[in-house]
Amino acid sequence: MHWKKHVTGLTFSIFFVLSYFTNKYVLSVLKFTYPTLFQGSAALSWLPGSLLFVGNIYAGSRALARLPIAFFFTLHNASEVVHVFMERLIKRDVSWMKVISVSVVLLSAVSLPLHDPQFDPVGYTWGVIHLCSLGAYRVFQTHFKPNHLSDLEQHYVNYLISFLLLAFAAHPTGDLFGAMKFPFLLSLRFQSGCCASALLGFFLLLATVKLKSGLASEQCNMWIFLSKVMAICLSPFVFISDVNTPSLACVVFSHIGEVLLVYSDRILR
Questions:
Q1: Exposed, middle or buried, 129 (CB in 10 Å: 0-12/13-18/19+)?
Q2: Cα-Cα-Cα-Cα dihedral of 27, 58, 67, 118, to 10°?
Q3: What is the distance between the alpha carbons of residues 246 and 252, in angstroms, rounded to a whole number?
Q4: What is the C-alpha to C-alpha distance for residues 29 and 38, in angstroms, rounded to an integer?
Q5: Closest CA to 249 of 107, 72, 83
Q6: Domains of the chain, residue spans
Q7: What's the pLDDT tens digit per position in 12-32?
Q8: Which of the residues 59, 85, 89, 185 could staple to 130 if both were Cys, CB 3.0 to 4.6 A apart?
Q9: What is the pLDDT of residues 82-121, one digit of tens each?
Q10: How far apart are CA 232 and CA 215, in angstroms?
Q11: How far is CA 47 from its chain centroid?
C-alpha cells in the first residue's frame, strides 16, 4: 500500500534529521572531534569497501564538526561527481542529463569556499576527502558488491573494520586519550549526546536498509533529498551559522543538481 511507503520514507527522514543534528551537536557544540570511534558477514572481498567507508565517515565527521550543515551537504552532494566520473571510466554509459546535473553540483561545491563568509580551510579539506571517499565507496558498492553479502552484512563489516582501525589509531594520534583530558567528557550532557548519536545512527541504518528494500532507487534518492532539505531548513533554528546570499545560492544550486540527478535516473529506467 502507498501509505506504508510514505511512512517508511517519513521515518527515514526523521531519523536522518535527528541523527545529523545530534552528530553536529556533539561535534561542534560539545567540541568532541573524535566521533567515529563511538558512532559507528565478514568477507575479504568487501575489505576495500570497508576501508573507503572508514575514510568516508572519519573525514565526514571532521568536516561536519567545522562546517554548517547546509555547506556540508553541498560538499556531500559532490560525491556524485566522483561516482559518475568513475562510472564513465567503467561503463562508458552516462546520459547527457546526468552530466549536466553533476556539472551543476560540482560548480556549486567549487564556488562555495570562494563565497563562504567564514571560510575554514581545514573543514573544506576534510570535506573534499569525504566526498572522494564516499564517491569511490558508491562505485565499489555498485560494481564490486559481493553477491553473498546483504546490505546489513555489508554495514556490519564496515562498522567492525572501522572500530578496529580507529581503535588502534586512537592512541598514537591522541584521538582517544587526548580527548579524555577534557573534564566535560564526564558530564551527563556529553554522555547523553554520545549515546543519542549512537542510537540514532543505528536506527538510521535500519531505516535506510528498510527504505532501499521497499522502494525503487529513484524513490529512495528523492526521500534522501527531501531529508537533506528538511535538515538544511531546520538547522538555522538549532545551530548558529554565517550564510550570505552567494553561499546560499551555492547550496540551492547544489540541490537543484541533485534533483536533476534523481530525475535522470528515473527517465533512464
A1: middle
A2: 110
A3: 10
A4: 17
A5: 107
A6: 2-267
A7: 888 888 888 888 887 777 666
A8: 59
A9: 888 877 777 666 778 888 888 999 999 999 999 998 899 9
A10: 24
A11: 20
The per-residue pLDDT for 36 is: 43
Contact 20, 208 (CB under 8 A): no
Is 86 or 134 the better-scoring residue by pLDDT?
134
- Give yes or no for residue 183 having a pLDDT over 50: no
pLDDT tens per residue, range 208-242: 888 887 777 778 888 888 999 999 999 888 888 88
Which contacts of 252-256 are long-range, i.e. CB under 8 A and separated by 24 or more positions? 253/104, 253/107, 253/108, 254/73, 254/74, 254/77, 254/78, 254/104, 254/105, 254/108, 254/109, 254/112, 255/73, 255/77, 255/225, 255/228, 255/229, 256/104
Decide: 37 and 175 in contact? Cβ < 8 Å. Answer: yes
Q: What percent of the chain has pLDDT over 70?
A: 77
Please, are residues 12 and 227 in contact by the beta-carbon 8 Å criterion?
yes
How far from the centroid of its chain's Cα atoms is residue 91's Cα?
Answer: 25
Cell of 196: 543519542
All three cell numbers of 132, joined, read: 572522494
Q: Give residue 169's pLDDT.
A: 60
